[in-house]
Amino acid sequence: MQLIGKTALITGAGQGIGRATAIAFANEGANVILADINLENATDTAKELADKDIKCWPYQLDVSDISQIKSMIDFAVDECKGIDLFFNNAGVTQHISFFDINEIQWDKINSVNAKGAFFCMQQVAELMVNQGRGGKIVNAGSIAGKGYKRASNAAYAASKGSVIAMTHIAAEYLAPYEINVNAICPGMVQTDMFKGIVSLRSSETGQDVLQIKENIESEIPLGRVNQPEDVAALVLFLVSESSRNITGQALNIDGGMIMH
Ligand code: NAD
Fold first, then answer.
1. 246 C-alpha vs ligand 1 centroid, how far in Å?
2. What percent of the chain has pLDDT over 70?
3. Regions of the chain with pLDDT less than 70
4. Ligand 1 pocket by C-beta < 6 Å: which residues?
5. CA of 15 to the centre of ligand 1 (A)
6. Could you give the percent of the chain with pLDDT greater than 90?
7. Alpha helix stretches (DSSP H) within the chain
8. Domain 7-188+227-253 has CATH 3.40.50.360
9. What integer pLDDT is reported at residue 221 of this predicted model?
10. In the chain, N or C: fewer CB atoms in 10 Å?
């Protein structure tokens, strides 16, 4: 129970990696703000935490809307005793080939993954500085932002490259306030996002879904895609005291798909 007394904010907490991380944090005693554009899913995550001895607050938030982020910060101050730990996780993508990406798709992906991630981090960091009790921030990057060649699309790869770059800048700015800022860079994670990409590849190539998954796994040195719980375990480490001297890093969790 290493997170007792802490309040965590997780964006994209309604499913996938965000939900698995909410469970991991709650198992360690943290109270959790479950922010998601899909309030119904965030409420379902809250139901999964019902048997834990913690408080949780499902909260509807579109991370691409700065005024909504500011309102959520007010809510955290008024109702949840502020924020100690932040998993900046909400993200979107779809499988689009290089020549097919249009302006609407570019803007959608980057307004959530890059702009949304930045302004969530900026607003949470300002609160943490004002609270004066340090903090931990973990941003959801991806190996797509580090040159992984089979990224779902170039707009997504650019958005995740932005997340890694903004992690470095924030880590430098926030170190004097005892705020650690790191990014996680998953390879494949078996969530709805992954399933969506696999089924689109399947309809484009005519290959069956299982075959595509097997092909992906055959390219992974450790031979398996992540489960959301694998990623949650890394995020938990990065918000724990065990990682107190780690900041400004973008850590891969990908079974060895890329090694830099
Ligand atoms: P997911 O699609 O299962 O879940 C994403 C969550 O974000 C959903 O609950 C969705 O409602 C929420 N969301 C989407 N747009 C939002 C918005 N504008 N405001 C607030 N919430 C919003 O995805 P996941 O696989 O759990 O991915 C989580 C993060 O991990 C993302 O940033 C993703 O890019 C990253 N990631 C995923 C994989 C993978 O293979 N699944 C790999 C690398 C990185």
1. 24
2. 100
3. none
4. 11-12, 14-18, 36-38, 41, 61-64, 89-93, 112, 116, 140, 142, 186, 188-189, 191-194
5. 8
6. 89
7. 16-27, 39-48, 66-80, 103-110, 117-131, 154-174, 192-205, 209-218, 228-239
8. no
9. 97
10. C
